[in-house]
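WARN  no MSA supplied for this record, continuing single-sequence
INFO  ligand: acetyl coenzyme *A
INFO  echoing inputs
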Amino acid sequence: MTGSRAEPKAGGLRLGIDGAVATVTLARPERRNAMTPAVWHGLAEIGSGLPPQVRVVVVRGEGPSFCAGIDLSLLAGAAGGSRGVAPQGEHDGNEPIPRPDDQDFVQKIASYQAGYLWLRNPAIVSVAAVQGHAIGAGFQLALACDLRILTEDAKLCMKEPALGLVPDLTGTKPLVDIVGLPRAIEICLTARTVTAAEALLLRLAELVVPAGELDSAVADLVAALLATDAGTARATKALLQHAAGHSLAEQAAEERRVQAELLGGRMRGNGASPSAGPGSP
Ligand code: ACO
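INFO  complex generated
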């Protein structure tokens, strides 16, 4: 992207902001972008510090794989109850994952999940650009995004159950929402690989493109997303996000409320987005 500056962040992340587009890059290709607590904290920090002009966030991985999931050195010994070791540190801020008997075990996981949850904020549209493998925590990162573009060689795998873990980085709900409960059970409990072709059929990918066309496909989608008025885009995303939890009558009422607020605000010369209503992420 012209004019963008990519700032290094903790955990081997990079953040580039070019006007309304932020690009978050997992940048530890020599480990296939394996994730550590520093990555999850870094993602959360990016989410909480995103400038208000950003409307689209692209999440990508450097090198042959989008993301190989948790850094496996963190799990060393964890299943037996002893604390995992911190990964060999190329990066500042590495920490071991907590033990289940640590007092703050649940809070720690919540802090990791914060690195994923902001990608659903109605103020932005998030796009995962996935090449090669997206495994475990990496698959969940792709699922945390609103939209996914995959290359033909992409492979998705929810590996956690095969390692004696449940997926706990916010991926289970979007997976069930997208593929349905029976398929989600099958994908998770077999920990099998879903190819890009199958991902398209299962609606886990909006688009599958040849490997050399990922950047241009992402650029085209970003341009199309930005062509819609910012306030309208935010209001529409929030409206759509609430649809699943509403009856038809409730959602119809929500459409009327949001439309009145959007157009009324515009008439008054107020560019602010309509309130997203209860339950907004
Ligand atoms: N954690 C730590 N290091 C990793 C990880 C990982 N998750 N994945 C890859 N690496 C390292 C490899 O050890 C290797 O290091 P080396 O060069 O020092 O030997 C380097 O990255 C390259 O990996 P290769 O396996 O050589 O790369 P390849 O492209 O052939 O395969 C693949 C990529 C398929 C991702 C493979 O590395 C793999 O299966 N990784 C483990 C995936 C996994 O089980 N993740 C945990 C999921 S569960 C969860 O996320 C909670």
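Residues 31-32, 34, 64-65, 68-73, 133, 135-137, 159-160, 163, 165 surround acetyl coenzyme *A (CB under 6 Å).
INFO  checksum written, moving to next record
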